[in-house]
Design brief:
Structural class of chain B: mainly alpha
Helix content of chain B: over 70%
Distance between the termini of chain B: 45 Å
Number of domains of chain A: 1
CATH architecture of the largest domain in chain B: Orthogonal Bundle
Largest sheet of chain A: none
Radius of gyration of chain A: 23 Å
Number of strands of chain A: 0
CATH class of chain A: Mainly Alpha
Shape of chain A: globular
Low-confidence stretches of chain B: 1-12
Distance between the termini of chain A: 30 Å
Radius of gyration of chain B: 24 Å
Mean pLDDT of chain A: 92
Number of helices of chain B: 13
CATH superfamily of chain A: MetI-like
Mean pLDDT of chain B: 89
Number of helices of chain A: 13
Largest sheet of chain B: none
CATH topology of the largest domain in chain B: MetI-like fold
CATH topology of chain A: MetI-like fold
Structural class of chain A: mainly alpha
CATH architecture of chain A: Orthogonal Bundle
Helix content of chain A: over 70%
Oligomer: heterodimer
Largest interface: A-B, 104 and 110 residues
CATH class of the largest domain in chain B: Mainly Alpha
Order of helices and strands of chain A: HHHHHHHHHHHHH
Shape of chain B: globular
Chain lengths: 276, 301
């Protein structure tokens, strides 16, 4: 018993469901992903390195990671505020606002892309206010930030919300009765308790933003070296039938996403220990 | 990574005293800041879809749907979702059963692997199938010999959609079924129920809301996926264009009204998804609350 891989159970169906799970997982996910890594093995190391560090690729990493970081940071601040307001205060229309937070999950990215472009273009609802004041959003790196902020919006709200809900009112009462001001209670008692959830939300929003394609390509204008994100560079290489370059840059993105996934798992493990 | 955060917990209302809340001025300022932020980033773009779509009148709006290419795109999107959602539903239930009802070595690794498609960029999700089935890919020459087209054809679109929606049902069900434990199923088995009987009569009623929620999210993503599908589709009008790809083509042709008209269909799908999600959340909270009540009554007895 001690050495068996699976504990005994009276329930049936382990073999069937586990077998199907492993087969389907391998066929759809594991084999295609490994094939991608194997494909780069056909390139020599210097070929691979030159492809993934050419100036155009480096510029795209800078934009993708930079804009994703800014977007995730904006979402950390406003997502925290939104979670706070939705959990702690009541105001008319709160349930609708709460439901609407998930819009970026539900709205197809291509729709988000064209509508954000329309809103922030020179003649758009918001663009027509900003452009006369010298702030160009559409077809600039700022537009990329706007799109990535939009698609990352629900993550921080939805990771912080349940934690804030479960936070005991008693610890705040204790802080207040020990003489802490409200500001001290918020910054010294509540924020530290929310930190793992906040960071998890930040990492999730960042990871989603780095790989995002549909909502960005319309508003960014796609100028090489300036407003070209890494996923778009992969598509461009594919359209030029440069499969080797597309694969090499794709592998860089895959390695980055796996690293982020690892960090997110660590953060979630930390949160679970914190909130258990 | 896209898409799912587990059903949120029911709000508990605590009466807050002056020491544990903020002054009214601070409260309303914060509410104002949040509403302006969400208004700018959510409400304005959503309203703009419908405003742009109807900008040239109702006739122009409906003309966009009479195009044969638009109808073909709608048909293809429905077909893709009709294949991708059921297979991922089947997988989700099977995986959740194996993971939640049994103890085995390597469970956490398996859960992480199931989540993998969420952390892969949509473009890379399409790319991996091009590298496998494309002409330059591993199986490309063999497929070409046998005259089977996967990339730049419907099978590729379905495969890419299955990949990006792969974890949705499984990751809703796994935590739910883990929380519910195995006692009820074990009792059913001991009382003589068969395996399938146990599943249909005991497990399925317990997980139905979570299951529905997973299917709703899976369907929304399947119908709306853009990046992965765009890489494998080849953009053949009337043949390999899904609705989101059709929106892109119309937009790039400066046919803005038609692009937004078709986009408004997808926006309505999003709104229906959000509404359905709210209803399911509410129902599952009631179910959980009822479950807790009966459990508590059981303890009292």
């Amino acid at each position: 018993m001690a050495l068996s891989l699976k504990q005994r159970s009276v329930l049936p169906g382990f073999g069937l469901t586990m077998g199907f799970t492993l087969l389907y997982l391998s066929l759809i996910v594991l084999i295609p992903l490994s094939a991608t890594f194997l494909k780069t093995a056909a390139m020599s190391w210097s070929q691979f390195w030159n492809t993934v560090t050419e100036p155009r690729a480096l510029a795209s990493y800078r934009l993708s990671f930079g804009a994703s970081l800014i977007g995730a940071a904006i979402n950390m601040v406003f997502g925290m505020l939104a979670a706070w307001v939705l959990v702690r205060y009541s105001f008319p229309g709160k349930r609708v606002v709460d439901a609407m937070v998930d819009l970026p999950f539900a709205l197809p990215t291509a729709v988000a892309g064209i509508t954000l472009t329309a809103v922030f273009a020179r003649n758009g609802w918001i663009g027509s206010y900003l452009e006369p004041r010298g702030i160009k959003v559409a077809f600039t790196p700022l537009g990329v930030v706007v799109a990535l902020t939009f698609i990352g919006l629900p993550f921080v709200v939805r990771t912080v919300q349940p934690v804030l809900q479960d936070l005991d009112a008693e610890i705040e009462e204790a802080a207040a009765s020990l003489g802490a001001s409200r500001w001290q209670t918020v910054t010294r008692v509540i924020l530290p308790a929310l930190l793992p959830a906040l960071l998890t939300g930040f990492a999730l929003a960042f990871a989603r933003a780095v790989g995002e394609y549909g909502s960005v390509i319309f508003i960014s204008g796609n100028m090489p070296m300036r407003t070209e994100i890494t996923p778009l560079l992969i598509v461009t290489k594919l359209e030029q039938y440069d499969y080797a370059a597309a694969t090499a840059i794709g592998v860089v993105m895959l390695v980055m996403s796996f690293a982020l996934l690892f960090i997110i798992n660590l953060l979630q493990w930390w949160s679970r220990r914190r909130y258990a | 990574m896209a898409g799912t955060v587990a059903l949120s917990v029911a709000a508990t209302s605590i009466t807050r005293t002056r020491a544990t809340t903020e002054p009214a001025l601070v409260r309303w300022t914060l509410i104002g800041v949040v509403l302006v932020f969400l208004g700018l980033f959510l409400a304005v773009p959503l309203a703009a879809v419908f405003s742009e779509a109807l900008g040239k009148g109702v006739a122009a709006y409906f003309a966009a749907f009479r195009e044969p290419d638009a109808l073909a795109a709608i048909r293809l999107t429905l077909l893709t979702a009709a294949i991708a959602v059921p297979v991922n539903l089947l997988f989700g239930v099977a995986a959740a059963w194996a993971i939640a009802k049994f103890e085995f070595v390597g469970k956490n690794l398996l859960i992480t692997l199931i989540d993998l498609p969420f952390s892969v960029s949509p473009v890379v999700s399409g790319l991996i199938y091009v590298l496998l089935f494309g002409l330059q890919g591993w199986l490309g020459p063999w497929l070409a010999e046998h005259d089977i087209k996967i990339i730049f054809a419907v099978p590729g679109i379905v495969l890419a959609t299955i990949f990006v929606t792969f974890p949705f049902v499984a990751r809703e069900l796994i935590p739910l079924m883990q929380a519910q434990g195995t006692e009820e199923e074990e009792a059913a088995r001991v009382l003589g129920a068969g395996g399938w009987q146990t599943f249909w009569r005991i497990t399925l009623p317990n997980i139905k809301w979570g299951l529905l929620y997973g299917v709703i999210l899976c369907n929304a993503r399947a119908m709306g996926e853009f990046g992965a599908v765009s890489v494998v589709s080849g953009h053949v009008r009337g043949l390999t264009n899904t609705v989101p790809l059709h929106v892109e083509i119309l937009y790039n042709e400066y046919n803005s009204t038609a692009a937004f008209a078709v986009a408004s269909l997808l926006a309505m799908l999003a709104l229906v998804t959000l509404a359905a999600k709210s209803i399911v959340e509410w129902k599952s909270q009631r179910q959980m609350a009822a479950g807790k009540r009966t459990a508590a009554e059981g303890k009292v007895r």
